[in-house]
Each structure stands twice: as C-alpha cells, then as structure tokens.
Amino acid sequence: MNNRCALVSKVIPFSCVDGPGSRLALFLQGCNLRCKTCHNPWTIGRCNDCAACVPHCPHEALNVQAGRVWWDEAHCQQCDTCLQMCPQQATPMAQRYSVEEMVAQIRKVAPFISGITVSGGEATTQLPFLVALFSRLKADPQLLHLTCLVDSNGLLSETGWQKLLPVFDGAMVDLKA
C-alpha cells in the first residue's frame, strides 16, 4: 500500500472539458508560476494560515484552531469569498488525500468515466504522488481501462517526465508565452 499524499484543491468526478471523454478531474494545490491569466488562480499558492480569509467568510465556515485555518465543509456555501480575500492565491478548502483515498473515489465513478486528468495549480509539483497514483491505477485490473493524463505548464524537468512516462498516457501542455 502506498501512503503518498497530495494537497488537493478540488475533485470533479465527471468532467467533459479536462481531456477526451468523461473524466475525473483532480486539481492539485500549488503552482510554480503566477500567470496573470491563470484559469485556476486559487490553486497557485498554498495556505500559510495567515487567516486573512477567516473574518470575511459570511457563513462562518472558517476558523482558527492551534494557529491553523480550518474549513468547515458543513457550513460552507461555496461563495468563494475566501478565495477572493487570500493574499496567497490559495484556498483554505484544500485537503490532503492519500493515493488509496483517491483510488477509492476513482473506483466509485470508474464505470462511468474513460480516464482521469490531474491538473492544478501545476500537477507535476507533486510528482511523487502523481507517479504513485498512476502506478496504482495501472496495477489495478478493475481500473486499468482508465487513461491517465496530466495537465501541465510543461516546466517539469526531463528527468521528471521520464519518471511519468511509464505510468501515464499523455499530457496536455499549456504553453506560456
């Protein structure tokens, strides 16, 4: 069992815009660029627990405990006020998932999707998780039919791409100019 974890901004179980067919889209938190025209700006940074978002949450879904910002999903109305207030371009709603926890989510929707796409932020900034997740999917006979794609800015080193090559089916590269 692999216990690698990733900081995940969002999981969309059924997406038809993140690669071919119906796919599970997994958005990882953190990016190595700060593009002004980013289409997922809340995935750029990582929460540093500054708590700038907490007093602005109209639904009291955020609080500070032991010096950390905590998100209460039950109270959250997904109004995105916290995203707009964050000086780090992060989300306090990001959660840690292990490979096994992510595989369990994928397994629930596997009969209805043709693959998964890992995006972000920049998916390759969490390369060990990415390699472990794709390896786990490729080793599971019930999930082997799923294609594994990475949506990337392309800044991964050649060595990094070589690590991904045996376990992924392709990349969608968003070239920056």
Task: Describe the protein.
The structure is a single chain. The relative contact order is 0.22. The chain has helices spanning 81-85, 99-109, 127-139, 158-164; strands spanning 5-15, 23-28, 62-65, 68-71, 95-98, 115-120, 147-152, 170-173. Helix 2 (99-109) crosses helix 3. The strands form 2 sheets. Strands 5-1-2-6-7-8 form a 6-stranded mixed beta sheet. A two-stranded antiparallel sheet has the order 3-4. The protein has 2 domains: 5-38 and 95-173, TIM Barrel, CATH 3.20.20; 47-85, Alpha-Beta Plaits. The protein contains 4 helices and 8 strands, in the order E-E-E-E-H-E-H-E-H-E-H-E. It is of the alpha/beta class and 177 residues long. Helix content is 20%, strand content 25%. Helix 4 links the parallel strand 7 (147-152) and strand 8 (170-173).
